[in-house]
Amino acid sequence: MSDKIQLNMLENGFDFILKSFDDLENDELKYTAIHLFSGVLLILKERLYHIDEKLIFEKPNKFNKQSLKNGNFQSVNYTSLLERLSDHSASISEEFKSELEWLRSERNKMEHFQVNVRVDALKSHIVNILVHFIPYIKTELVHNDLLDEYDEKLQLIISYLHQYEEYVQVKLTTIEKDEGIKKKIFDGLECPLCSQKTVFIDGGEAYCYFCETKFNDFTETYINENFNLYEIIKDGGTDPCNECPDCSSESMIYLDQSISYICLSCGVLYSHEQLEPCARCEVNLAYSNDPHEAAFCDYCLDFFKSN
Hints:
The protein is mainly α. It folds into two domains: 169 residues; 94 residues, no CATH class. Helix content is 50%, strand content 9%. The chain is built from twelve helices and eight strands. A three-stranded antiparallel β-sheet has the order 1-2-3, with no helix packed on it. A three-stranded antiparallel β-sheet has the order 4-5-6, with no helix packed on it. Strands 7-8 form a two-stranded antiparallel sheet. A hairpin with a 7-residue loop joins β7 and β8. The longest helix has 24 residues. 29% of the residues are buried. The mean pLDDT is 87.
């Protein structure tokens, strides 16, 4: 059993971020900046806390459990927070840091002076922060088992962003500009959660670069979202899944948009010219070397050899 004290920094951080969305909708841009910055900082402190609870004290040598529990201590300042995260391999990206610095500066001005900031400029920076922030939450909290991926408030944040046009466009543009990611993404394959064509499959693992979801069972999730297997069985339709000729799993599907076959388990991809239904059983897929010659699956080839 963990001896960590429950500080609710994560929950409070999410509350601030959700409040910033309300402020944004109401054009209360001053409070959008203040609440968003506060929320992001709390979640970064949560990450630091799980590395070492002493590190969220500005002076770690002054740490004691009672002060932590009572909240009667000076917490780590912004600069020290980023430095300590970096020292423990949990740093934020340079792009994220640059945007956060801008928001911090504007927030300080807004709190103490009358500041006029262009609405479109503030919204642009807020979107850029969130484009970098969500992957950080997924990588540093969800993938380290410090946060449930289906946490209600996290899902509310993600749901809001996926309906926020500026966020969607910036996120897709960021993915488009990354040549390394572009080469990995499968043309025509939609994520069953966010519906963006930003999915990568490799060695049995699937990942969506838009919603930053790492799938435990991508095949099941994809099939359940896109096909009604009950109706197919009841009405005598065609099973959308074929046996993959590479990994033998029942996970090979046909993508109409890209005119290709893809295995949802191992990620192998074939054009429709490379695979076709077996000429004998008409059930399994078979390698096709020549469109003018019949192609047979391994099972049928073994049948021919044994007879």
